[in-house]
Amino acid sequence: MEQGSSEFNRHRIFGIIGMGLMGGSYAKRLRQIGVQEIIGVDISAQVCVQAEKDGCVDRASTDPRILRRAEVVIFCLPAAAMVSFLRQYGAVFRAHALLTDITGIKEPLVPAVRQYVRADLDFILAHPMAGREGSGYAASRADIFDGANYIIVRREENTAAHLRDIGHLARALGCAHIVTVTPAVHDRYIAYTSNLPHILAVALVNSAGLHRRAAYFTAGSFRDASRVADINAPLWTRLLLANKENVLHEISSFQASLQGLTQALRDGDEDALLTLLEKAGQRRREWLHERN
Questions:
Q1: In the chain, pLDDT over 90 holds for what percent of residues?
Q2: Is beta strand 37-41 parallel, antiparallel or unpaired with respect to 98-101?
Q3: Interacting residues of 198 by C-beta distance below 8 A, sequence separation 6+
Q4: Is residue 4 predicted with pLDDT exceeding 60?
């Protein structure tokens, strides 16, 4: 299958660390677009066997030394696990390899990357805004990148050539929109577009209104608003705490917005309520237009 940027180099050897939902999806898409050699690393020998059986990797192992030939390495691990891997196995990477990741919060990672990544390597932080319900290798799919946003998070140490390489990778995966920002800007936007919606979904489902009989009164709006409340709790605990100052700012802004709606209802102010509802509809239409 030919897809994506014509400048993407399918002849490079790719390594993927962590063959879960995202790592498995990377492997399946990279294989689908014609990457000739893919190496996988996972703590589960069973996952390694299954990935080899599926043909999305050429070799997979629980031993990180298998990565010695990889020219591009994609970390599909939580932030703490990634830092631990860099600290313990940073010497295994091929000279001048290009490293990248998928972690959801960037600014706290920068000092660790500077400390544990060798000077001859280039680590470009990245965040593919892709995913689906479920977890683990069994939930991985080649098509989760289709039409997704892909955020490249540049650091001063990154080379222009490698930044372009990651952009070509994103296009080849099928991502539709690619943006390059600093770690601080990334984390501020993610607090609103990702962290806050997860918090709101959790609050909605944890509120007193949800009881057994409520299941018979739900339709699409409740399903959409509550979908991400089925959450990977340990992962999201770490993500929210890692970005807590930005998240707290967005919660305060949301509380102010909610207070405006509350006051309009309390006062029975039809004009004020109508204005707020119409404003929301207009802003969402503008957002969809910008996104498309």
A1: 88
A2: unpaired
A3: 228, 229, 231, 236, 240
A4: no
The residue type at 93: F
Domain holding 283, by residue range, is 186-291
Together in a domain, 234 and 97 = no
Do 223 and 172 fall into the same domain? no
How many Cα atoms within 13 Å fall on the side-chain side of residue 242? 22
* Nearest to 241, CA basis, from 65, 75, 108, 72: 108
Q: Is 136 helix (H, G, I), strand (E, B) or coil?
A: coil
Q: Read off the pLDDT of residues 152-170 as tens digits, 9 standing for 90 and up.
A: 999 999 999 999 999 999 9
Whether residue 17 contacts residue 67, with contact meaning beta carbons closer than 8 Å, is answered with: yes
pTM: 0.90
Asked if the structure places residue 2 within a domain, the reply is no
CA gap 277, 233 in Å, rounded: 32
Judge whether 4 lies within some domain: no
pLDDT in tens, 62-116: 999 999 999 999 999 999 999 999 999 999 999 999 999 999 999 999 999 999 9
φ/ψ (deg, to 5) at 261: -65, -40
| Mean pLDDT of all residues belonging to the chain | 94
Does some domain include residue 215? yes
Give the model's pLDDT for residue 254: 98
Does residue 131 share a domain with residue 258?
no
In a domain, 109, yes or no: yes
Joined tokens for residue 103? 């972690």
Per DSSP bridges, beta strands 149-153 and 122-129 are: antiparallel
Domain end marker among 158, 181, 204:
181
Helical ranges in 105-243 per DSSP H: 110-116, 160-173, 183-190, 196-206, 220-226, 233-242
